[in-house]
Design brief:
The protein is of the alpha+beta class. The chain folds into two domains: about 100 residues, no CATH class; about 280 residues, no CATH class. It contains eight helices and 18 strands. The strands form three sheets. Strands 3, 4, 5, 6, 7, 8, 9, 10 and 11 form a nine-stranded mixed β-sheet that branches. A six-stranded antiparallel β-sheet has the order 12-2-1-16-15-17. Strand 13 and strand 14 form a beta hairpin. The longest helix has about 35 residues. It starts with about 35 loop residues before the first helix and ends with a strand.
């Protein structure tokens, strides 16, 4: 009989210990069917020895902390990970960093107890480019001066290019396969279209061009893995006072940079697990509000400084400062909207509902689910398992969307 990994999206129910009767996977497909469950003798499961990770899996919220916070440590966001995983990292502020998007560094690693699975969340990045060669040369010169240096200078890239290039290098892995995340890209395009229209209505010449990609990884030690990334390129047109025409600047922002390392051959399982992790992403509204206010304050300060410079430089820098602020605020708002789409894209989650109308997306392939108010979940395929009986704790049973 095939026994899936404890981290797989499908856990089979095993026969009971100590001579008690339980449903048996007679066809060897790894799942207890309704017919197989019905064939078992009546049993309440109270005297069966259930094993966590075999008969059921527990998902707990990893709460990522900003130790600096705003006057005190604060939770920045949370995600669901399997119980027992060890995590390190969090939010760090790079005070004085010239690139606003990279001031807040989000770097988190979570590892399974056996070390076979490792989740890595990488910091956001931004890089800029100009099609006007004189402007580009001026920005290269500014980059040599700590007082005028901004974000990195590089040509714009779509998500697949970035995944195979800079992100692969950061992960220390080879991208053996890459595919466009078309469903997520469509959602991002809808959001971009609304933003583009709002900019046109305001008389601002800005266009957002998003893309998203999935990658299959191979690490030097032979392990496999999956990775996700998305990029939004903000194209801004402004008058070129030398030519009398227009020139464009390109600001590329990559917020989603996530990889899940796994044993070779278990990429499908990793994809389902990563689906649950991504769809469970929740930002702390209080922390996000503080970040947005900080960005507005910095942008206002930058604009005051530009008034001391020549008129043409003032207009350009004030314009860029405003664009930088709008990019950050828009990207923050889009995180919650795209989290659910990531999970649906990977097709590794199913939606469950509680009695109060709450909804959550959890690993696909399970027949039973329970929740607690602290954000912990239990999933099982064993029809005899009931955490209220086995664990002697208070759990609420969830109902799966049909």
């Amino acid at each position: 009989m095939r026994i899936p990994s404890p981290l797989a999206a499908v856990l089979c129910a095993l026969s009971a210990c100590g001579g008690t009767s339980a449903p048996f996977d007679t066809d060897g497909d790894g799942i207890i069917s309704p017919a197989e469950a019905a064939a078992a003798p009546e049993h309440d499961g109270a005297d069966k020895q259930f094993v966590e990770g075999r008969d059921y899996v527990v998902l707990e919220r990893l709460r990522v902390i900003d130790p600096s916070g705003f006057a005190q440590p604060m939770e920045a966001y949370s995600i669901l990970i399997p119980k027992g995983w060890k995590s390190q990292g969090g939010i760090t502020w790079q005070v004085g960093h010239p690139c606003m998007t990279e001031v807040i560094r989000n770097r988190v690693t979570a590892t399974s107890p056996d070390g076979r699975f490792e989740l890595n969340i990488y910091p956001a990045q931004q890089w800029d480019w100009w099609d006007d060669q004189m402007m580009l040369q001026a920005m290269y010169q500014n980059a040599q001066n700590p007082l005028t240096r901004r974000c990195a200078i590089a040509q714009p890239m779509e998500a697949g290019q970035f995944l195979q290039g800079p992100l692969a290098q950061e992960m220390g892995a080879e991208v053996v396969k890459v595919e466009p995340a078309e469903e997520l890209t469509q959602v991002m395009l809808q959001q971009a279209a609304a933003n583009n229209q709002a900019m046109r209505d305001a008389g601002v010449q800005i266009e957002y061009r998003p893309s998203a990609a999935l990658g299959e990884l191979r690490y030097p030690d032979g392990s496999g893995g999956v990775a996700l990334t998305s990029i939004t390129v903000q194209v801004s047109w402004m008058p070129n006072y030398l030519t009398g025409g227009q020139s464009a600047s390109y600001s590329s922002t990559c917020l989603q940079k996530v990889a899940l390392k796994c044993p070779a051959g278990q990429e499908a399982e990793a994809r389902k697990l990563l689906s649950t992790i991504m769809s469970s992403f929740r930002v702390n509204p209080e922390w996000q509000a503080g970040v947005s206010q900080m960005v507005r304050n910095v942008a206002a300060m930058e604009q005051r400084e530009t008034r001391k410079r020549a008129q043409i430089q003032q207009e350009t820098n004030a314009y860029i400062s405003e664009l930088r602020q709008r990019t950050w605020e828009e990207s923050q708002a889009s995180r919650d909207r795209t989290a659910e789409t990531w999970g649906q894209l990977l097709r590794g989650v199913e939606t469950w509902n509680d009695e109060q109308g709450g909804r959550v997306e959890l690993n696909a392939g399970y027949n039973e689910a329970w929740s607690r108010p602290d954000g912990t979940y239990i999933l099982s395929n064993d029809p005899l398992f009931d955490p209220n009986v086995v664990l002697k704790e208070n759990w609420t049973k969830l109902k799966k969307d049909q």
